[in-house]
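Hello again,

I reread your note about wanting to compare the complex against the isolated chains. To keep things tidy I'm splitting this into two emails, and this first one only covers the full assembly. Below are the input lines as submitted, including protein chains and any nucleic acid or small-molecule components. They are followed by the predicted structure of everything together. The single-chain runs will come separately.
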Amino acid sequence: MTDIRLENNGFEDFAVREHRSLWLDAWRRLVANRTAMIGLIVVVVFILSATGAHFFWEYEARGDLDYNKKLLAPTILPTEEGPEIHIFGTDKLGRDIFRRTVHGGWNSLRVGLVAVGISLVIGGLLGLVSGFFESIYLNFWESLVLMTLLGASLGTLPGWIARQPMQIILFAGLGAASVFYDRRLLNRKAPRQVYFGLLGIIIGGITGIFVGTLVAVVCGILGLVIGVLLARPLGGKIFSSFVMRIMDVILSFPSYLLAIAIVAFLGPGLEKGMIAIGVVGIPVYARLARSAVLSVSQKEYVLAAQSVGESHGRILFRHIVPNILSPIIVQSTMGLANAILSAAALGFLGLGAIPPEPEWGAMLGDSYKYLSSGAWWAVLFPGLAIVFSVLGFNLLGDGLRDALDPKIRS
Amino acid sequence: MGRYILRRLLSVIPTLIGVTLVIFLFQRLIPGDPAVAMLGEHATEENVARIREQFGLNRPAFLDRDALAEGDLNGFFDSQYIRYFRRLAHLDLGSSIHRRIPIAETLKERFPATLELSFLSMLIALLIGIPAGIASASRRNTTLDGVTMVGSLIGVSMPIFWLGIMLIMLFSVFLKWLPSGARLSTGVSIQTITNLLLLDSLLTGNFTGFVDALKHIIMPAVALATIPTAIITRMTRSSMLDVLQEDYIRTASAKGLAQRVVLFRHALKNAFLPVITIIGIQAGTLLAGAVLTETIFSWPGIGKWVYDAILGRDYPIVQGVTLLIALIFLLVNLAVDLSYVLLDPRISYD
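Full-complex prediction:
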């Protein structure tokens, strides 16, 4: 196609220029970035060796034990005493450290992917919806659903206290009513709050009276609060601020202290570690996705889509989501690095993988116990494996940031 | 500004309640009955019942609707969470299960050790990180810059417990220069005033004590300082690079000011705000990182304490210390937010 290029005084004609997609462009920038390529190579080697070892190099951790070979220093060539070579040496139980390190990669990869998956899916969705609700003016049906759900969920508390499922339904109705009577009927004589507050007292009090006077009083007060709250022009922001408050709470713990604490209470295990690391990562993605949505939704193309009457779902998934992907991809890459580090920390503390299982952190925790024997190889190699894989993901993440968003490149 | 400070202070309250809620809910994560977890599996029926009564474990978690139905308003609020919250308000963090010592008391002994370690680490991080960041930014794209950047990237990619073990391996096992654990050698004593040993030994003029304490603290402090150093370096560099592109920097250079003056008086002051945010965040990370570092170096601070508590399933300690660290983290971040107003007159929140 390129040979039909016309003489155009050095200006490239857009119609003739070879068309490239956004992702291809980003890929080319990534390839041109030397440090990013180093990162990519490390990551690919890590993934290939970990999956390759898992599927093609059998290793049974449970039976791996040979006291005759314990604490052998690394050897590259076979010697007269030992015909077998252990390029990383052996540990206290005579296990080949090279083999365990390669197999440990599989566990790190698994933890990283699952933990980032948890944070990304939950955090990303929460952030996406929060940001969208905050920046888009909800239409009638959306407000109706939101306010009904809000009424029902607030009504759960008095409903639970009075053992009256009816209250939940009635408060859901009150929420729906706040949408219907948005501007009509009520606001001339007195503020909406008064009417809704009174309705709340009635709903709470009357259904509560079946249980006892005190219950009726408490439910009445709760009903008043709920009614007044529902009468306020809330919109989608209430969802967003609620979610972000929860995220603030999670963020007010230093991240891996929280992971350690969660696993301490759940009990040790690689799966529990994955969950803990994943949960701790949720707020990062939620905040990132929310702020990206907030900034993208002010862009002209989103306003244009709104003004031609595209549905909100279509705007969200066709116009907003593709445009917030790049920061999220970058964050996920870095997140993998963090998850590997956290998993190693949990393993080291004895809260991650259960012992004979090869896991880098657990291997370090194990070799730490016989440190005074001077077996430096038992400490060095699993640690290097962590450093290289984490460094690889960090380098790749840095490179991806530059490649995906050339504008912010400084 | 007064109103902003007040509003910011008030905004901490819901987060604080949320934090106590999270820590309270930890109790629920324990599989099985917490009373049995406290007493061990061979506990008798009546002992379990007694513990349940004593710790209020037979109360409902949040609110007691049955008590309310019987017309008992106090009983309505007499729940596990509200009891827990009330105890916290009285600075009662509960007691250790095994040793039955109030957590607050042990905390008074152990917290200074962690504080000393964190302070020294932060000092190391600042003394290395900020100059390295400035040097790297002012000589952009040189070998120095490259080395600093690669170094800091390795710093954030390194598990600190691994670095700790390697340091012990090198300096304690092979070279035998430094001790591998504890705060002081046996036989050396320092009269405690603040329980920060470096400070106490200086105050009492105990030079041998000071050297001994320094020898013990230097390895854990360096290990703990790695990540903050790397992050502060990167932040200082990128923040300086932003500022160095400003017009007033070009003006300052153009009128012939020495590079030193331009860098430190004109650029650094303006580049400092993001660095302070990072320092605030790192303060929390340091306290959390203490769990790993202290475990490796047998440092008798709160981190080692939590680790031992986790192994011994002494849950109140884990809860108490986690709460304390979260509180400190919250307060440091609050202080960082408030310091913006003082440091940058352009920012006003009214």
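For quick reference: The first helix of chain A runs from residue 22 to 32.

B.
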